C-alpha cells in the first residue's frame, strides 16, 4: 500500500482503497487535476517509489450510479483495448470504490504524457485503429456483437446486449439513441425527423446492413473503440506513436469506427480513410462502403445532439445526413422500378 505524504488536510488525502491500488511502499507526492471531463473528476497522481524513482497515474473518479457506470465503462473498455494494442493504450491499473465514500468510485491507469496540440498524421492515427481491429477480429468472447457491460459515450449509456445479428444489434442501438436524443430535447417535435425516422429504419438500415450478412456474406465481430474523435487520439511524447484512450468499446463491425473519421466536424476525412483501407479490407458489398460510412457517421452526430441539446445546429446536422441516406435509398428503388433515364424523385 502507498502512503499519502502530502502536507494537506486529512479530508484531502487519498482514500485508503485508492492508495492500496498504488505501488507498494510508494509515497504520493502530488495530486493535480488532469484534462477535461464533463461527467467525472480526473487527476494526475505522482508517486515516489522506495528506490527514488517516480511513477505517475491517471485517476477518473465518479459518484453515484452514473459515476459507477462511467468508471466501469472506462475500466472494461480500456482493459479490452489494452489487451490488443498495449503499445497505444495507457495501461489500466485498477478500479474500485472508496472506503471512506461508498458512493464514490475510481478507475486508475498509467499516466501517459502526450502532445496536446497535434493531431496525429493519418499513418499514426490509423495504424493504431487498424491494429485494434485486425488483432481482435474473430475474438469476441461470445462470438456475437455487444460487450460484457453497457459502456458510456460521455455519460450516455450504450446498450451492448449481445446479438448474433449485426443488423439487429445496430438497429436496436440506433432506436435507443434516437429515443435518448428525443428525451434530451424534452420531447420537442421535429417535423422532418419524424418523417424520416420510419423510412430510416424500414428502408435505410435493411438496405445497407442486411447485404453484409446475406448471399453467403458475414460480418466477424472485432473490438472497436467507438469514440475516435481527435480529442481521444494524441501523439505520445515521441511525436510518432498514437495514444488512444477514453473508449466506449464494443464488439462490432469494424467500419463503425470510421464514421467519426468522415464527420466534417473533425479535420480528418479521406486521407485517414484511405490509410485505413491499406491495412484492412473493405467489407462486401464493397460498392456500399461510402453509404455505410455515412450511416455509421450518424451515430456520433446523434449522440452529440443528445449531449448538447442547447445547440440546435447539432440536431440539424444529423437530420440532414439522415435525409440524404433516405433519399439515396428511395431514388435507388425508383430507378430499379422505372425505365432507364426516367428517374425523378424528391422527398
Automatic annotation (TrEMBL):
<dbReference type="InterPro" id="IPR011009">
    <property type="entry name" value="Kinase-like_dom_sf"/>
</dbReference>
<dbReference type="Pfam" id="PF03881">
    <property type="entry name" value="Fructosamin_kin"/>
</dbReference>
<dbReference type="GO" id="GO:0102193">
    <property type="term" value="F:protein-ribulosamine 3-kinase activity"/>
</dbReference>
<keyword id="KW-0808">Transferase</keyword>
<dbReference type="InterPro" id="IPR016477">
    <property type="entry name" value="Fructo-/Ketosamine-3-kinase"/>
</dbReference>
<protein>
    <recommendedName>
        <fullName>protein-ribulosamine 3-kinase</fullName>
        <ecNumber>2.7.1.172</ecNumber>
    </recommendedName>
</protein>
<keyword id="KW-0418">Kinase</keyword>
<dbReference type="GO" id="GO:0016301">
    <property type="term" value="F:kinase activity"/>
</dbReference>
